[in-house]
Amino acid sequence: MGIKDTAAEWPVIATQTPFTGNKTSVRTDEVEMPDGTVVKRDYQVHPGSVAVLALDEEGRVLVLSQYRHPVRQKLWEIPAGLLDVPGENPLHAAQRELYEEAHVKAEDWRVLTDVYTTPGGCDEAVRVFLAREISDVEGERFEVEHEELDMELDRVPLAELVRGILAGELHNNALVVGVLSLSAALAGEGLDALRPADAEWPARPFEA
After folding, report:
1. Counting CB atoms within 10 angstroms of each CB, which of 17, 93, 97, 128 has the fewest?
2. Which of 74, 49, 47, 79 is nearest to 62 (CA)?
3. Residues annotated catalytic, as ranges
4. DSSP H or E run through 166
């Protein structure tokens, strides 16, 4: 027996959306607490995301550096992107992002971990995939724009990424979660024990 997160939903007395952006919005709910009081909770409504930890045959992780304006830093990250279509299969979205951002494909896919990035103020759910047996994709590259124009690509040994995370030098959520989860899997039951790529995801249900 172990601990696990469970579904729960307290009564919402009223709700409004004071701001709607291009990809996300802000919602204000009036929530009834267990003692009967009603309080307001503001949070960002997010479509969800996928991220890909692509591991090559030499044990290196494919990473990219991209400018992130809210934190005023260029962060080293793993390929990632939004679930643009409601109900979209997250594996298909992950394969698309790996192709678009790194021009790479993979033959072996597993679910590495599922996380809520900031559950106190945002409902974003992220599924992090492990992709192995990777190879470059032939053909025309995806046309980049905006922050992606300044993107750098690299392949870094897993141990070096772990060191950078623990030293406080690497901060991207999906990178940190993915790298440390991979390290734990390797030290535990091994990568073949990870969930299959089509494992159910209650936070973002999808069609097979």
Report:
1. 17
2. 79
3. 148
4. helix 158-166
Q: Would you state the pLDDT for residue 47?
A: 95
Give me the helices (H) in 70-152, please.
90-102
Strand arrangement, sheet containing 25-32 = 12-20, 25-32, 38-45
Cβ(201)–Cβ(114) below 8 Å: yes
For 115-170, what is each residue's pLDDT tens digit?
999 999 999 999 999 999 999 998 666 565 555 667 899 999 999 999 999 999 99
- Written as six digits, the tokens of 86 are 């409601």
38 contacts: CB under 8 Å, gap ≥ 6: 13, 30, 31, 32
pTM: 0.92
Q: Are 110 and 195 in contact (CB under 8 A)?
A: yes
